[in-house]
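Weekly puzzle thread! Below is a chain. First person to post its structure in token form gets bragging rights.
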Amino acid sequence: MPKNSPNAFVWVLILGAVGCGSKQPAVFVDLSQVAASETLPSAPQTPRPQSTPGIGASSLTLPAMPASAFRLGSDKARIQQVENVLLKSRQEAFIQIEQSLRTSYQAAIQHERGLALEKLSPENQAAFDEAYGSYMNAFNDYAKNRAKLVVKLALVAGFPDLDPNSEDVPPKAAFIANLRFQKAKPLREGVAKLDKQFRSDRDAIYAKVQAEAAQRIQTVNQEFDAQIAQADAKAQADANAEVGKEQEKLQAVLEDTTVVAFPPEPGRTVTVEGTSPSAAPPTVGDPGKEELERRMRAADLSDLKIWAALRGYVISSDRRGARNGTAEFIQWKKSHLASP
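Winning reply:
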């Protein structure tokens, strides 16, 4: 058995503190009910990327125009009318092309976001493995220090301790009992302080690794959010360039002339290719939630062994023939191992 194994300290409690030949009562504890009574430390929630549907190709058709000429003379109102028609046509074309380009650009970026988040999984898992090592070191120190106090307490107050909260104060006339009470009280307080500090240290370890994992995810999302903003600006610029190709030379004809001549123009179709549906981005759950739950359950099992040793119980895996100590164990955890 390893030198600092938690089980070793449990046997120390049992062998060092019980010290009697009486048969130990069997109790059954439903760990699923214990788990339901606990609340895991919460992790900051981060938005998850969504898969994007495919988009169809978008086309804008410019009809063929025969050669034509208009004598405008000094009719400024007519010139303004032509300019307004050109402006409206440009605006409509811009809206169609810009929307298609934006959707296409964003779909590609969202797909890359999903791949980047998926690559974080091994790093996050390694961080939780390291945190579990820190947790076990903290537990071994806690169990060793607690065992020393519990053995001293057993010698003073008996085992199991029937007054863990030091509520049964003996009368001053009972000198021996009063002396035992005064010696037991600081030992009980020391045990309670160790229990509380251990829970606090454990929660801090996992809260830290959860926050770091969430920060890594947030950093990736911020990077791709910036790319989305850049893609929007690029869609606007590209759409402006596309619709401006044909209309710039028509606008120039209107400047400083009394005759507007339109050369023949062949029909032309501007097409923005569609995209296939992007692959669904990987599911990124709350960082370490399943791993934390598994390790919390392992901690519950360790707590159960300590509690049984303190009470002089034998843990039974069968409900039949054993007293149900689930409620008692949950109450003990709340009163002795409560986090601050």
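Puzzle host: Confirmed. Bonus trivia for everyone else. Residues 76-157 form the longest helix (82 residues).
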